[in-house]
Design goal:
7-stranded antiparallel beta sheet, 5-stranded mixed β-barrel, 28% helix
Length: 416
């Protein structure tokens, strides 16, 4: 009986001992695998850092290879620039937009600071506003009326923490009115980035800058008397597609669409005296810099929208679809000129026509009530679609869009 009991105890002891040992081994195996995973992740991060460094070096190489606009210049991790001590801002900033921005997730750093590579010193915070601490440890801001506008936008570097942070050097800032910086300028930057999303195998060469002249006035309260540009330029090159475009925009609130400011790179060179992409083959450079294919760069044009008519070409009391907005709600009868790019019947049978810009980006609409369609000897939807048409009437506000009610054929002048 005693032997049987001992055997049973031994078996039970062995079971629990083996189970405990097995449990310890599994935990050890888990720990070992977790350690290996941590080591692999550390190796992965090291490799990613190395890859980022290679990409930054390639950007520097490629910027130089296509030709920077002038010398001497300063080369940062992902952008090059020439600095003007006279105006306390860059003459130009060159950078590249890589397909990496599609997956990039680096957020704004807002670490505005002096550029240590500019030997004469750069603008500083006190050139744009004063900041004083209040008793509750918060800050009071006394602005001078201008945003610190990026020349090379930080979002173009959202794949690299280092490059994005360097975009906050004051050498990359220029005084911009808030309505401009946060409006049309931001729209332009977003449109250029959008090109990459539509062409994910492309990389873009971009050069941006203020138009600097001796006549520019400074920010009066600025510590270093930073000049306030009246205009800004941007030139963009897709070298693989041999496609390029330029933009010249005034430093003001802008109502006109981007295509209004699109120009050839030749025109930007004439205005600024700079020579962009000057290391390309002469024939290739000449061809690229003289072209102006707006539809390749501005998606709304490719999708059926058109450029607004040039106001100086129109007769007195005739206005394009941008200027017509100024008459919204004034009850004055005017003639609005544009091309019908979209039309539709509402559920109640009324006809809506959009001029120049398609829905949902419409900038001017014409409304013909169902009851008034009998006043036309033709079907307005079929006849007016795609035509340049001049409409006479009063401009009203319809949910923020300038809109004209046209009630008869006599108020419609089909121009082509």
């Amino acid at each position: 009986m005693r032997n049987t009991t001992c055997i049973a105890f031994f078996i039970l002891f062995s079971f629990y001992s083996n189970h405990t040992l097995q449990g310890q081994n599994l935990e050890q195996q888990q720990a070992q695998i977790e350690q290996k995973l941590q080591a692999l992740e550390a190796q992965r991060m090291q490799l990613l850092d190395g890859l980022e460094g290679i990409k930054l070096s390639m950007i520097q190489r490629d910027l130089v290879a296509v030709g920077l606009p002038s010398e001497p210049y300063i080369m940062h991790s992902a952008m090059a620039l020439q600095y003007s001590e006279q105006h306390e801002q860059a003459v130009w900033v060159a950078h590249m937009i890589l397909p990496d921005i599609i997956e990039g997730s680096v957020a704004r750093t807002n670490d505005f600071r002096e550029d240590p590579m500019v030997p004469t010193g750069t603008a500083v915070e006190a050139d744009y506003f004063l900041k004083t601490m209040k008793p509750d440890s918060t800050f009071a801001y006394d602005g001078f009326g201008y945003d610190r506008g990026h020349l090379a936008p930080s979002a173009d570097f959202r794949w690299s923490e280092k490059a994005l942070s360097e975009s906050y050097f004051y050498s990359n800032m220029s005084p911009q009115l808030a309505d401009f910086n946060r409006g049309a300028w931001a729209e332009l930057e977003g449109t250029i980035r959008g090109y990459i999303f539509n062409h994910p195998n492309s990389s873009l060469y971009v050069v941006t800058g203020p138009v600097l002249t001796d006549a520019l006035k400074p920010i009066e309260r600025s510590l270093n008397k930073v000049s306030v540009p009246e205009k800004f330029f941007k030139v963009v090159l897709d070298l693989d597609a041999q496609r390029a475009i330029g933009f010249i925009m005034p430093n003001e609130k802008i109502e006109f669409p981007l295509e209004h400011f699109a120009v050839t790179i030749d025109e930007v060179e004439t205005l600024t005296g700079l020579d962009f992409f000057n290391k390309l083959d002469d024939a290739l450079e000449a061809g690229i810099e003289s072209q102006l294919d707006k539809e390749e760069w501005i998606p709304s044009l490719a999708q059926g929208s058109v450029e607004v008519l040039y106001q100086p070409d129109l007769p007195p009391n005739h206005f394009n679809t941008i200027v017509a907005k100024n008459y919204m709600g004034k009850k004055d009868e005017i003639t609005v000129c544009g091309r019908v790019v979209g039309s539709r019947y509402s559920r109640t049978g009324n006809l809506w026509l959009n001029l120049d810009k398609q829905f949902p980006n419409q900038i001017f609409s014409v409304f013909i009530r169902k009851a008034d369609l009998v006043n036309f000897s033709y079907n307005p939807k079929e006849v007016l679609e795609g035509k340049e048409v001049w409409f006479k009437g009063v401009v009203e506000n319809f949910n923020g869009t300038p809109t004209m009610n046209v009630d008869s054929e006599s108020n419609v002048d089909v121009r082509d």
